Every structure is written in C-alpha cells, then in structure tokens.
Fold each of these.
Amino acid sequence: DAGVIQSPRHEVTEMGQEVTLRCKPISGHDYLFWYRQTMMRGLELLIYFNNNVPIDDSGMPEDRFSAKMPNASFSTLKIQPSEPRDSAVYFCASSFLRRSRAGELFFGEGSRLTVL
Amino acid sequence: GIQVEQSPPDLILQEGANSTLRCNFSDSVNNLQWFHQNPWGQLINLFYIPSGTKQNGRLSATTVATERYSLLYISSSQTTDSGVYFCAVSDRGSTLGRLYFGRGTQLTVWP
C-alpha cells in the first residue's frame, strides 16, 4: 500500500509569496495531521482533521496559516504571506481508529520549506 | 498537554554496542509510539506500544504504563541505526490520535 504522500518535497520561496503544501493520506485513514518540525521547537502539531472536518487548529501559529481537507484523499496547508520564520519541515500524517491500535500514526516524507 | 521527556539527549556508540533509550511521560496514556527519524528526515514507525513489551529484530520496547515510562532497546547497533529516536504519546484526556512528542534522542553509531 502507498504511504502518506506529500508534495512538494522541497520549496524555496521569497518572503511574501504564497506557499501551498499538499498531502494524500493513506487510503482508509480517517485522521489527518499537519506537523511542523524546527530545531528550536521540535515537532509540533498544527492542525488535525477527522473525517475531513478540522477538529483542533489551536497549533496553527497565526492567520497566515490555513488548512483544508476537501475530501478523504487530499489536504492542503497554505501559508499566505510566507515569512522567513516559517522555514521548517512540514509533515503530514494519517491514522485511523480501530479498537486494538487506535491512533497509530504514519508520516509522509515531509516538505522542506525555505523562505528567503 | 502531557509532558514527554526523553533521555539521553545524545548517544554515541561503537557499532555492535547495545543501548537503552528512555521516555518518561507525565500522565496516563492511551497511545505510545516510538519513531526513528533517519538522516534523510523520514519519520518511521518503530513500535506502537501503550503497554507491554514488543520485539522487532534487534529492537525491542517496553512500556510500564503504571509507572509512566517506556524503554527502547537497541542491540548490536549498526551505523544505519543512526538518527533521532522520538517517543510520542496521547493522553487519556485527549482525542485519539493527537500525539505529543518528546525532543528525541540523537543516536550516532560509528563503524
């Protein structure tokens, strides 16, 4: 089975530009998560969805960040306008609820964003 | 949210050595996972282990939920074991699936 697929793998952009990161979760998974990883803050949860509905976006740093999940197989994380401090690796992850292994998380390969 | 502390923060080993990584957490958990982030940045599941003991090849893990800690054992380490090992937990009060990560243990294995 295909894992979580993210694109682009690398993005270099200039401050002020719009950035869109994409994610395709594992088929059949009903939870989708966006994480950000930096040296200073480690891995931090930005937002997660259950059955395409945003459940908790308290980790989204500010209004410049938005995330959508229009269907079960696709999600986007958008930053507009981007700033240098947004430079990080953004991970998408998915999981599904089942009685014996609730919440086991599988990560994509990440999107490395550099904002100049 | 729940606090997750990992130790040691850094570990340097000679190939063939054994090691133990520790994860302490501040509250009862309903989910605990160990991940390996390889030098290319990929986060790979090692174990889903909210309680008990599991083994997978040279790696094994034990979680003692009542005492709020988990241990990851690496035996006969190899250079490919290098990377960062993360422990992540979900507490009983939070929605299933939301994980809190420790800061990781950076493991370097020399040939």
Note: Chain A touches chain B at residues 31, 33, 42-45, 48, 50, 55-56, 89, 91, 93, 95, 97, 101-107, 109-110, 112 (CB under 8 Å).
Amino acid sequence: AQSVTQLDSQVPVFEEAPVELRCNYSSSVSVYLFWYVQYPNQGLQLLLKYLSGSTLVESINGFEAEFNKSQTSFHLRKPSVHISDTAEYFCAVSAGGNDMRFGAGTRLTVKP
Amino acid sequence: NAGVTQTPKFRVLKTGQSMTLLCAQDMNHEYMYWYRQDPGMGLRLIHYSVGEGTTAKGEVPDGYNVSRLKKQNFLLGLESAAPSQTSVYFCASMPGQNSPLHFGNGTRLTVT
C-alpha cells in the first residue's frame, strides 16, 4: 500500500517569510497527491491536489506544490505567510484505489 | 447543503461500554470513510465503504464495526470501548476514486 512521510512535525516561521512543508511518498503505482489544511477544532479541508498534467499546482490562497516523480515528493510552499496560515497541514496520497493515506501532519505556526 | 455531519461532537465512555457514531452526508457521494486522528500519527483509516451495503477494512479496523445501510449514512460502532480508542474520529466522503475527501468536524471520544 502507499504511504506518506511528512518530514517536519512543527515549522515555526515569522510573518511574511517564505515556508516549505516537506512531503515524500512511496507507491509502486501512479499516485494522486493532496494537501489538506486543518484549523483548530475543525475537520480537514482540501488545499490543493495533483491528479495529472502540470506538476506545479496552486491554491487560491497563495500556496503551491510541485509533484516530483523522481524524488517521490510533493512539497508545499508559500512565498510569504500570514498569521492566518497558522494551522496543521496534511499530505495525502491515493494510488488509484479506494483509500487515501495521510502523513502525520506538520504544524505551521506563523509568528508576528 | 450541510456537507458531512457527525454526531455526537463529544462523548465520554467507560471501559467496556458501547456506542455508535453517526455520519451523514447530503452530497450523494458513493464513498465514505472513518478515520481516527491521534497526535503525531496523522489520520489512520479505520473502515470505508464504496457504496450502499458495502464495507471494507482499513489500516486499524480492530475493535470497530461499521454499517452502510443507506447511501447517505455511515455508522461506526464500538462494541466494548477501551482507553486505546480515545481519539478524535473523522468521517469523510467523496464522489469517486481519487477525488478529494470532504470531512466532517469530528467527534472527540474519551474512554476512561
């Protein structure tokens, strides 16, 4: 089965600084990749997804992620973060089957 | 359009007691899932269903049972609760394979 590793459990960063949240996956077949965001006391919400086509995908709030097949990575980046980006971020992988597997999460804390 | 609704939001059980968590979705989605979220472990799949009347085991199914008698509802049962089942439980649904998941807001369960 597919699996996901998020390399950083916590990432503190100052407001307006750039950030990268790292995600690596393993799978023996082609994959579909997702980033979800979880705000306190809420369920997860889709941030962005890679299904096919361009390897660079963007969200409406300035995040982007790049699918790198050779490095089996799907890192999430934002050039300038805001206080409101403070949340937990989950990388997830689906390998064409019926289930989706999640990483352990990265807690992003944006400080003023 | 309520999306995915979970009830109850909170519950405290004593060891050995039983309970059922209810998940309802109004989006006519075929696929429904139950995950548990524990600190440092991300989301782990308990059971899932690919359609009315079908269920399948995920990563951590032991101690749980599920039923999908109606397309819009997915029930998660604990027959004899254990402290190890203290967790936050999330229900999710999606319209088809490799689609993004839509999550409920979670049920926080404590077993003493």
Note: The CA atoms of residues 60 and 78 of chain B lie 13 Å apart.
Amino acid sequence: GAVVSQHPSRVICKSGTSVKIECRSLDFQATTMFWYRQFPKQSLMLMATSNEGSKATYEQGVEKDKFLINHASLTLSTLTVTSAHPEDSSFYICSAAGSNQPQHFGDGTRLSIL
Amino acid sequence: EDQVTQSPEALRLQEGESSSLNCSYTVSGLRGLFWYRQDPGKGPEFLFTLYSAGEEKEKERLKATLTKKESFLHITAPKPEDSATYLCAVPSSSYKLIFGSGTRLLVRP
C-alpha cells in the first residue's frame, strides 16, 4: 500500500523553540497534503490543507503564523510550529492524497513542550 | 451540516466473539466512506473505501458494508491483534475528511 513517512516521531523541547515536522509520500505523488492534530482519546482535527506550490488553507481557529506549512513538492510538506508553548503539545499527523488515492497517513509526531 | 457518528464508543470482546461497529453519516452527496484502523501512538491505517449503497469490502476478518445512512464494520472471530481504534470518515463537499470519534476495540484472549 501507499506509504507516507513522517519525521520526527517524537520531539521534546523547551518553550519558545520552533519545531519542524516533515511529511513525505514515498510511492505516489501527493497533490494534496493535510495536517491534523489529535488529542488523547479524541478523533483527528484538521488543521490545514496544502496543495503543492500554493498557500495552505487553514481551518477556522488555527493560527497560520503559528503553524507554518510549506508544500514545496509533490512528495514533501512541512509543518513548523513556531515559538512553541506547552499548550501546543499534542500528536500531529499528516496525510497525503493523490489522484485516485484515498488519504494515507503518516505515523504521527508526538510533540512535548516543556 | 456534514456529520459522522460512530458507536459504540468502546467495545470489549472475547477472542472469537464476532460483532459489528456502526458508522452513521449525514453528508450532502456521498463521495465515499472510508474506514481506518489506528493503533496507539500511530497514524490511521487505511482499510476500505465504499462508494455506493450495497457495496461490501472484505479484508481478513473484517467486512465493511454500506447503506444510504450508515456503514458497518463486521469483525468475524476477532483476535487480540485486532484491538485498535477504528475510525470512519466521509469527504465533505470541499473534500476534507470528516471523521467520527472512533470505536476503541479491545479483544481479550
């Protein structure tokens, strides 16, 4: 099946640090990538949608200056959490979708801000 | 408003005890219904896509069915390794996936 690689799997850092998370589609061209946030025992909450070569579309309530998304190629999207604070601690998951492909998800990044 | 509701929230089964998980949906024009499996600390793993009422898909001990209002994920003779959270989702009119809250399945040996 389609593989989406997400890196790093876990990050622990101090408050005020910016953290970059990478999402790669390994065996298909992802025209659209999605970034989700998931709280314990809750379902996935969509943060933003990004299409290759264009600006990301953010969901209501998601700060675009806080969560910077870059989708530079058909196989790579990055999410940068800028000046992270403890309330940004969460499980972040990306997914990728191509033509005739359902969304395939990465294994997530556990972000812990001290 | 597009909505997906899953039940039960949690389900405990003995190994070999078959059961079904429910996913009810309300969406303006069905563009497919997706089932995913999520293990703790992992991203969702794609299982099935169903597009039209009456369609069925099978994979090992899992079978997904679809009607005009809901989908069922039937688990036949489950094993402990089937323990996971099962998520269903439908695309909205803007093609964003709307997820249900999931069913946490625990299969005891």
Note: The interface with chain B takes residues 1-2, 4, 6, 34, 41-44, 46, 49, 91, 93-95, 102-108, 110 of chain A (CB under 8 Å).
